[in-house]
Write a structure and sequence with these properties.
Length: 389
């Protein structure tokens, strides 16, 4: 009866014939020296459609190779994790930039009960020329800062390509990203699911390849940042929307009360500035509606795992409630304009000053448009909500 495999070293590769054999050899030497005789292991290469001798070289050195025809770093790693037979998997690139001798630190943490272990190159040794200055001093620190703020993680290097993951954690994460942003998805979803995570020092060397790297600094950096912003709709939509809408509503209210109580106060701010407040409020609310729809879509696709905004939507939202409240705001706007028209063309109601009339007109337009927004956004939101109900 074959022994259960405990350790897998996973190496994604695309046209790495020059270095993949060296990586497999180093991984094999490490595993042979480290693992006891009764501990089974494997080296798995996820070949992402190489057109050179990558597959042949890897198999010659003793690796098991799977073919991943759909291109993309994330696609290769996802297929690799699914094909891995080991209980614990450590991944590293095939370009000989990472030391497979460091894999022991990753397996040690996984054995200690951690489900996700990420390397930190800044705590290890970075060989001269191994990391471009743009990545070392700008790209990685900025993306790491975003990850800390958005996801609350306590790691120092979000872009390190050497990581360890238990198979159980991989199945829980439902990783889907196909490109380089796969690395960010692992961190974001591990934080969302409260997967037990830690980091270990990791060395980085220049490697031996004589071709340009697959990584594209600006394109892939944007893809990482884009994923973070899409994953955290609270910061991307709700915070800016709330700031805009509250600022606009407060400004409109201050102008209204100024014109009622003391029209001469702050003469530089006349009632036409109520239009600025109206624009800010409606823009902010539109952003919030977009955020709610994006959150529902994200949840329906298992993109996240039930964030605070989604929990609030599921608790309070219904199409009927949205139509009712939207209709009430539309009615409020109509009533304001009815009052303004009646007071202007007849003596049945008190005649207001021009400043107050403009203030109230601003509120009437705001209520009417906000109500329309609410009704139709509720229909759009309900479309996704019905799918996840």
């Amino acid at each position: 009866m074959p022994r259960e495999i405990r350790y897998t070293i996973l190496i994604p590769a695309l046209n790495e014939a020059q270095t993949v054999g060296i990586c497999v050899e180093k991984a094999r030497d490490f595993l042979k020296q480290t693992c006891r005789e009764n501990v089974a292991w494997e080296i798995l290469v996820a070949d992402n459609g190489s057109t050179d001798r990558t597959r042949e070289v890897a198999e010659r050195e003793g690796a098991r190779v799977i073919h991943v025809p759909e291109r993309g770093y994330g696609k290769a790693l996802t297929a690799g994790f699914r094909a891995a037979r080991g209980r614990f998997v450590v991944m590293a690139d095939a370009d000989d930039t990472y030391s497979f001798g460091d894999a022991g630190l990753f397996f040690e943490k996984l054995e200690a009960g951690y489900d996700f272990v990420i390397g930190n190159r800044f705590r290890g040794k970075i060989e001269s020329g191994a990391m471009p200055p743009l990545h070392r001093y700008v790209g990685t620190p900025v993306l790491t800062l975003f990850a800390k703020v958005l996801f609350g993680v306590k790691i120092g290097d979000v872009n390190c390509g050497m990581r360890g993951l238990s198979r159980d954690a991989f199945l829980r994460l439902h990783l889907k990203a196909g490109g380089m942003e796969f690395a960010t998805e692992m961190i974001a979803k591990a934080a969302a699911l409260r997967v037990k995570t830690t980091e270990v020092p990791c060395d980085l060397r220049r490697g031996l390849r004589n071709r340009s790297p697959h990584l594209r600094s600006w394109r892939d950096g944007w893809r990482h940042l884009r994923f973070m912003l899409l994953f955290k709709t609270f910061w991307t939509f709700f915070v800016p929307g709330l700031i805009l809408s509250i600022s606009g509503l407060v400004g409109m209210g201050m102008l209204l009360f100024r014109d009622i109580l003391n029209p001469g106060w702050l003469p530089r701010l006349d009632s036409k500035h109520v239009l600025s407040g109206m624009m800010m409020f409606l823009t902010g609310m539109q952003v919030i509606w977009f955020g709610a729809i994006a959150e529902a879509y994200s949840f329906s696709r298992r993109f996240d795992f039930g964030s605070r905004p989604m929990r609030a939507i599921r608790k309070w939202f219904s199409l009927e409630r949205g139509i009712l409240w939207g209709g009430l705001f539309v009615l409020a706007g109509i009533l304001i304009f009815t009052y303004l028209a009646t007071s202007f063309y007849s003596g049945a109601l008190p005649h207001l000053t021009d400043c107050l009339r403009l203030d109230l007109a601003g509120f009437g337009i705001t209520f009417f448009l906000f109500g329309v927004q609410m009704v139709f956004a509720s229909f759009a939101l309900s479309f996704f909500y019905l799918r996840i109900k």
